[in-house]
Design goal:
This protein is an alpha/beta fold. The protein contains 18 helices and 18 strands. The chain is 39% helix and 21% strand. Strands 3, 4, 5, 6, 7, 16, 17 and 18 form an 8-stranded mixed sheet that branches. Strands 8, 9, 10, 11, 12, 13, 14 and 15 form an 8-stranded parallel sheet that branches. The structure holds zinc ion.
Length: 491
Amino acid sequence: MDENWATSLHCEGRTILKVSMSSHAVQSIGWTCLPFLCVLLLTQIAQSENLSFQHVSVIPMDSERVLTDQTVLIAGNRIVEIGPSNRIKIPSGTRNIEGRGSFLIPGLCDMHVHFALPALHPRYESLNRKWALELIANGVTTVRNMRGFPELLDFRREVDAGLIIGPHIYSTGPGNNSGGCAWPFDRRVDTVAVAHKAVSRDKADGFDAVKVFTGLNAAAYHSLAAEAHASGLAVYGHVPDAVGLEGVLDAHQDSIEHLSGYLYAINSTECENGQISPGGISTRDSRSYDASILRSIARKTQASGTWNCPTLVLLQTLGKRWQGLLHAWQAPGATPFLPWLWVLGKFNAAALRDERDELPHFARVVMSMLHEAGARVVVGTDADGTYVAHGSSIHQELYNLVSAGYSRYEALRAGTADAAELLRKQDEFGTVEAGKLANLILLQGNPLADIRNTGQRIGVVVQGHWHSQRDLEILVDSCDQVHNRRSWSCE
Ligand SMILES: [Zn+2]
């Protein structure tokens, strides 16, 4: 007998979507696709309505202020008007969200994430969709993917077309590295000629930036950086050992990841004796820094205009990597980065012990020096599905910045308006202002009073589409169920 399969999605107590089909149709589509089919239909339904928030407290993030009792009008994917609720008239046919007692902030921006390469595993395409949904469910409406691959550009187009719920993705091209340090899926760049080709390729493919890695030789690095800037691409990544921090600052590298390079700069013996950890960060004797040298480097960082994306939440996990390796390898959602790290000998027990003991301490020192110097910082997590989760980790990173001495406003700005500035898109998003993209989070509490309130969400607006937190969590749960059933782990 041909039984029918049926499901429905509910929004604020109403059934807003019913899907039913024959078991034959279910088999031919495949269970994995069903949640995404629902997402697709839900997204299309949402496209037809304009949106308003009434009596809401707006935290615009253009300065440290809260505007109370505001009405925010959204048409299409843009904010069109903001003003006191007693002055703004809501057009008929607009879907109104009651905002009394709640706070509207810009969507969060995670400036260091990784999506999985579908070429490496057949399940990675659905894994990427799951991660994209988890990012939105955590209020992350913009990400910077830090190692590009061709399928990502198609994925980005599908997200932007509303076919997949996910954040807008900015992305570097593939990683560029020299010699034997290259990861299996990165590009080996040893010469100026190859560097030239790499930049041309990234530009032609449509990536936003060039990724530089720890092992690049000086000639290849300088060629990559100069050609990228000349073609309008940004340069993001690690500090190559052969170039050093000062060389990278002189080249106006646009962002430095994981505070890489800061330790080398203050302790020259590290250059000769230090061991390279998975993140390319040497950690030996990090307590023996010279504060005056570090202070002058922080001032130079500020003067160069180079941003830091410290990924403190990643640095906190490094010490746990050794113990967690086998467990993580077997866990649902593990990626092939782990086996590759093992093969490349990147896991070193002594280095990992040092990281656990030294790195969080040193990171706090560097962050306080950068803060004191007024150097620019953005929020990034290095979420890659192994140790750092997509979405939820951004709330920990915001908390980490506050713990490192940043004010709650400064931390939230690093995760919103400052990220837009790093991406040179400050006219497009990052603040709650008329004309900006309608990427917003409705919160139960004021994050300027307690940064942990970014974890208390009522809903998220993505490109003008409202998703209640309840609906997002239902979708995430259904993704989890489907994904785990077809997991490639030790079943
Ligand atoms: Zn990374």
